[in-house]
Structure formats: C-alpha cells, structure tokens
Amino acid sequence: MNNPPGQLIVLAGPSGVGKTTLAHHLIDKFKFTVFSVSTTTRPLRGSEIEGVDYFFVRREKFLEMIEKDYFLEYAEVHGHLYGTSRDWVRKELARGGSVILDIDVQGALQIKEAFPSSILIFILTPSPDVLSSRLSSRNTDDPDVVKLRLEMAIWEISWIGSFDYYICNSRLEDSLLQVESILRGCRLKMLNTSFPPEVIAFTPERFIGLEHWQGKRVIVTSGPTREALDSVRFISNRSSGLMGCSMAMALRDAGADVLFVTGPACISGPSGVDIIPVETAKEMFDILASEAPKADLLVMAAAVSDFRPSAFHDGKTERSGTVRLELEATPDILKELEGTIDRMCPVMAFSLEFGPDGEKRALGKMKRKGASAIFYNPGDVPGAGMETSSNQGILFFDDGSHVEVKRSSKRYIAELLTAAMGRYLMKGNEG
Ligand code: 5GP
Question: Which of 62, 172, 204, 326 has an alpha carbon within 20 to 30 A of 391's alpha carbon?
C-alpha cells in the first residue's frame, strides 16, 4: 500500500531549537507514537547511545546505504550525513502508528514530497540570540560549528511556508502543550478517522451490506481529468474529488483493498489505500485496462473530461487576437474497456445530470455503459453535485430497483452507497 494508515509527524527547524525534547515528550505522552532513530555519520557525543539516539556509521557505509535505496530521506547537515530508514518507517505506518521524525528542513521537504499527508511542524526559538546561546551552551560544538549552524538556520527559516504548523519554542511548557494539541487534532480530524461505528449504530439497517466488502479488491476513480492545450493551460472541470475520496474511505473502512486512481483533485487521497495519480482520460483508461480484470468492483466517481483539444501546442501560446479551439471527444472509458479487456468487473458509475430529464439520461447511461449501478446526482440543485461537501440522488441498479439518498454529507452518502452496492451484489450471489 503506497499511502499507509499511520501518520508521519515531522519536527524540523534549525539545530538547537529544541526539536528532540519535543519529540521525546510526544513519545512519552502518547502510546500510538514511535520515534524514528536516524542513521548518521556524525561521531557519537558524550551521553548518546547507539541505536537509541542514532545509528552511527562510517561515511562509506552511509554512501553504500544510499546506493541500496535504504533511506526515505537523507541530507548533509553541518558536514555530516543523516538519514531515515525507509523500511522501518513504512512498517510502522502500515501498523497505523504516528511516526515522529526529528530531522532537518531539507529532510522535511523530501518527506512532504513522498508523503503529501505528512504533518510538518516548524520549530524556532524566539530570537536569533536565543538560538545562538542555546547552541553555545550545549558545549557539543566548537565556535566555528556554532557559526555554521546559525548560517544554515537562515536558509532553513526561508522554508517556513512549506510547513503545516509553526511553534515558537519560547516557554517549554507552552511548546509541549502546542505540539500535543497538533497531534490530538490530527488524530481527531474526520478526514483521518475511520467512519465512526457509533454513527452506524444509530441506524444499522441503512448500513447492511457493508460486510460484503471485507477482503474485496475495489478500484475507485476520482477527481477531474485534465486535457492540455499547451504546456501551461488545460481544460478540466469543477470536480473536487470529495465524492471519490469518500467512496474510497467507505470501502476501505468496510475492509476492502482499495486502489484509488485520481485526477488532479483538491482533495488528496485517503490513507490506507493505494494511490495512482493520473492526469488525462487516456492515462486513467490505461490504468483501468490493467487493473479492472483483477477487481471485484470499479467505482467510476471521476469526472472524466468528455473532450480534449485536437492539437497540443508545445510551450505557452502567445496572447494575440482570437484563438479558435477545436475539441475532440475523449475515449468513453467504460465502453472502450468492454472492447479491450477479457474480463470486466462490475461497475458502479456516477452520473451528474442537469434538467428535468436527468434521471432518464442517467438510466440510459447505465445501460449504454453496461454498469451494474449508477448514482444519479443532480448538478442543478444547490448543495448537490460538484464543489459542495454534500450531495443527494438516486442509486439505480440494473435489475430495475433503486435506493434514494436524501441530501447529506458526501462522506455519509458514500457509506450508504457502499452498503447498498454491497447488498445488491450479495443478493446477486445468493440468486
Ligand atoms: P545533531 O547532530 O545536533 O543531532 O543533529 C543535527 C541536525 O540533523 C538536526 O537538525 C537534526 O534534526 C537533523 N537530523 C537528525 N536526523 C536526521 C535525519 O535522519 N535526516 C535529516 N534530514 N536530518 C536529521
């Protein structure tokens, strides 16, 4: 799984700001946290213990480890190499824990790149003088090294805007409370939690069918696609990706093994699933052609672009006069899959429709595309469709039955749709 359920919490900032104290406080305070012990080429200092503070290795060994792709991130800091073990972090994240990294800013930026859902916390002292006196009073570095560390701090501070949180470590008690609050807040965030069983307990009958998904392989497509006009411009649509992300979370929480194929959406993919980012309708088609034969269900929640520019201009088209755009239809993914692959899995499609004939058009689409079910959601009703956190509609099945879903949050609706789809497929298996 390339987006495991655990969370990476990165404490970064210049040397001497107190990151290590904050990191160890979190480890002592919360059972769900683990500390990532880095590997370094720096010599061991007085009270440090091998395997507790760092794994100390020679430079040649570290370079060998880089060659073998041992590190998730690494950086040269004040003349020494430091790095984080990729396998160890992945293992801990797969177990669902919060992994605390106490690393430099270069490393933090690499982590954000590899794990966009990681939480970066920037720690700083209240003034340059405080940092300088903290570094000098540690008595671990000679004055030249302290000077080097202060120079490096100015570069590190310039990356402040790439961080999610900022703590000024003035009074330690305040900083400890602040860093605890960040961790607590992250754990409680709806986007980071499984669907609460307490919610299901209020109306269990609505959620019958969720049990069908245990151990099933499901592909969920999400977000808009983009079709390029030139190197900087594209045509796309208003899909935020929230409905697709909510479907992926509902299926994940029901025990499915989820592959999330997403166009460039505002909502990043949920944790605990495999994520494949795509840009165009063609890229999405290619992934589905290889993955759909192995799946138990394909949820087509993506708003795939129906048209693309007939020609692509390499570079940036100059502003001048009138530009005429010629568009051509993109491949109808479901129809093309049918003709391309040997085995197609059941499909649950989404159909955003405008006007009074919306239902009829959605039903026509279900038939044309050979889908087992289609969720018709109106685009012209306030609070439904694209760019809203809520939705409503009707889930039609190919046996003529349907389930109506009243307006509520997309996350709740995804849970209802997942249950209804599970009930439908279970009924088919019985019959
Ligand atoms: P120190 O030598 O004082 O223990 O650490 C020097 C700097 O290296 C600190 O900013 C510390 O956070 C950073 N550092 C420690 N381990 C790692 C690591 O694994 N990766 C990166 N990028 N920096 C690290």
Answer: 204
